[in-house]
Design brief:
Blueprint lengths: L6 H15 L4 E7 L2 E8 L1 E3 L4 E2 L6 E2 L4 H14 L28 H5 L41 H4 L16 H15 L3 H13 L20 E3 L6 E3 L15 E2 L1 H13 L7 H4 L4 E2 L5 E2 L4 E2 L5 E7 L2 E8 L4 E7 L6 H13 L1
Antiparallel strand pairs: 1-2, 1-14, 3-4, 5-8, 6-7, 9-10, 10-11, 11-12, 12-13, 13-14
Helix pairs in contact: 1-9, 2-5, 2-6, 6-7
């Protein structure tokens, strides 16, 4: 390849090569000002039928879903149904909240991961409660039994809090499950329906949803993982909850996530509360800030990443450049960050 080659053409060839040599399978999208500047589809949405990934393929997005949950809660604040300072115990009755929930925990604490409540899936490797493989959770509690936020309470509802709220940032899946419970309590409707109405529909995300793994929905990529490095590929049907919820598991296309980031940025979803959501409410050890359901990076971008068995996802916006980057992968190969970095390098030329 000559040195004069377009960096984005070189990137496309590189990603195609990774599909053959590194088991990369997924869809990648770069847009600027709403216009596509790069798109690639690599690998198979379904390895059994050798169905290729296309721009219409829908992928699990794991914890990128937390941005939707936060937007939904913010919309309830906007509509006067709750406030960021509202204690959770003032919203949830005792039978629909953790039994150990401290009265001082507010919506604010849950949104920016400073609640101090115990998590059901600890992602901090330094924690004694760290869980290396999310799939191990379902050895006793069947993954097919997790249909609504309340179904997760047996995993963490009786655990002692780590600390009082507001003392320290600690990323929490359980905290977002509790936000899902709040959404259901305030609206009287299933969490997934409320997200559809308050996020997917207004953002024009017509291909997105919370589809069950056992539901025959077209254009949904199967997530694949290996239990051992050189072992056979297995689908993730027994490794994640049967349907996504407040802490993760929505299913989207790259273009729908681009639409979401656009509506997120222009105020269509957040309105005047956009600046509050994108303010730094807490800090990670690595220099990142935390807004409400969104990571704030030192290089000026914001967004979220996610990973589940058979799922890798990234969605970012650089406000100053009006650039969006989306990476969705359905093989658990640990390539999302490398793909992101290669895309950034090619975009910046």
């Amino acid at each position: 390849m000559s040195v004069e080659s377009d960096p984005l053409e070189v990137l496309a060839a590189e990603l195609t090569s990774w599909g053959k040599t590194r088991d990369l399978s997924g869809a990648m999208l770069l847009t600027r000002g709403g216009e596509r500047i790069f798109e690639a589809c690599v690998g198979y949405a379904d390895r059994a039928t050798r169905t290729p990934v296309t721009p219409a393929t829908r992928f699990g997005i794991a914890s990128v879903t937390k941005m939707f949950t936060a937007c939904t809660v913010v919309s309830l604040v906007r509509d006067g149904l709750v406030a960021f300072e509202t204690p959770v115990v003032d919203v949830l009755p005792p039978d629909r909240r953790p039994s150990t929930l401290l009265p001082a925990v507010t919506m604010h604490h849950l949104l920016c991961h400073t609640s101090g409540i115990a998590d059901y899936c600890e992602e901090d490797e330094s924690s004694p409660a760290y869980l290396a493989d999310y799939a191990d959770l379902w050895s006793e509690l069947p993954s097919y039994s997790l249909n609504r936020p309340a179904d997760f309470l047996p995993l963490f509802g009786d655990l002692a809090p780590y600390r009082p709220p507001g003392e320290l940032f600690q990323y929490s899946n359980a905290g977002y499950i509790v936000l899902g419970l709040v959404v259901e309590e305030l609206t009287g409707r299933p969490f997934t329906e409320v997200v559809q109405e308050r996020v997917f529909d207004p953002a024009g995300m017509s291909a997105s949803g919370f589809f069950r793994l056992d539901e025959p929905v077209p254009d949904v990529a199967v997530g694949y993982r290996r239990e051992e490095p050189d072992g056979p590929w297995r689908s993730n049907v027994y490794s994640i909850p049967v349907v996504g919820g407040a802490d993760g598991g929505a299913i989207c296309t790259t273009h729908d996530l681009d639409r979401f980031l656009r509506a997120y940025a222009d105020g269509s979803l957040l309105g005047p509360l956009r600046e509050v959501v994108l303010s730094r409410h807490a800090c990670w050890d690595d220099g990142r800030g935390e807004g409400y359901g969104v990571h704030l990076y030192p290089d000026g971008r914001y967004g979220h990443g996610g990973g589940d068995p058979g799922v890798e996802a990234l969605a970012y916006r650089w406000p100053e450049d009006d650039v969006h980057l989306v990476v969705l992968i359905n093989t658990q190969v640990g390539l999302a960050v490398e793909v992101r970095d290669a895309m950034i390098t090619a975009w910046r030329g």
